[in-house]
Amino acid sequence: MEAIILLGGPGAGKGTLAEVLKKQTDYLHVSTGDMLRAATQAGTSVGTEAKSYMDSGQLVPDAVILRIIEERISEENSNSHFMFDGFPRTIEQAEGLDRFFKKQGGAINHVFNLVVDREALLARLTGRRVCRSCGAVYHMANKPPKKSGICDIDGGELYQRADDSEATILNRLEVYKKQTAPLIAFYQQKGLLREINAGGSPAETQTLVLNVLNA
Ligand code: AP5
Asked: pLDDT value at position 196?
């Protein structure tokens, strides 16, 4: 069992990068944000508990996240490669992952820290639109759909995520700084951190990450 971790502030481009990497590598994309949104939509008990935290930009409790991650990992065989997107998000979650991997004989290969300045993060998040049916991600300026408000892939309606309102974005940035940014030092000490300048185009970010993976 092996893993890479995509770390970075809200809107840094973790999901966009993961969509490409999962086609070019054998890493399975595991996004806790996507899993929680699916649970919310399905009305499960995890989804109901997570919704109020997500809508206000707070983190969902560590115990809930560690439970859904363990369940997800257990669905795959012991030779699987995981690409964690948006997980871990606290030191507690990172320690939980370490404990789980130790038990399973797994290893984390790289932690990619996608570095993007605050102005660009704000612009990426406020302009993001998502397809209601297939989940494809667009951006009003950087990656607009051919027809306004309509998904190019399946014609689904494009919507703005509830947590992409300006007030909630500011809260998410604060939460990132306080609770998630300490992971940078945590993984640096373990020799796993790879700093990636993710302020350029998606293709540029992808090349920087693939260079490390292929080295
Ligand atoms: P989550 O869904 O993980 O949100 P996030 O980390 O804030 O990240 P985003 O999905 O907003 O952004 P992204 O980095 O994937 O950027 P994207 O590629 O879409 O989490 C949501 C909530 O769930 C949390 O607030 C929390 O409540 C809860 N949660 C989730 N995981 C949790 C955990 N482990 N613990 C506790 N709670 C948890 O790109 C953004 C936009 O920019 C898009 O429009 C895209 O087209 C555009 N774009 C991307 N790359 C570029 C580029 N290079 N140039 C120009 N535009 C770009």
From this structure: 98
Residue 177 sits in the same domain as residue 199: yes
Q: In this structure, what DSSP letter does residue 107 have?
A: E
Q: What is the pTM of this model?
A: 0.96
The count of structural domains within the chain is: 2
Catalytic residue selected from 51, 124, 129, 172: 172
- Of 64, 61, 63, which is closest to residue 179 (Cα–Cα)? 61
110 lines ligand 1 (CB under 6 A): no
Look at residue 44 and give its three-state secondary structure: coil
- Rounded-to-integer distance, Cα 16 and Cα 18, Å: 6
Q: Tell me, rounded to whole angstroms, the distance of Cα 201 from its chain centroid.
A: 18
Tokens 């939980």 -> residue: 96
Of the residues 22, 72, 143, 161, only one is catalytic, namely 161
pLDDT at 148: 96
Q: Distance between CA 34 and CA 178 in Å, rounded?
A: 22
- For residues 25 and 107, membership in a common domain is answered with yes
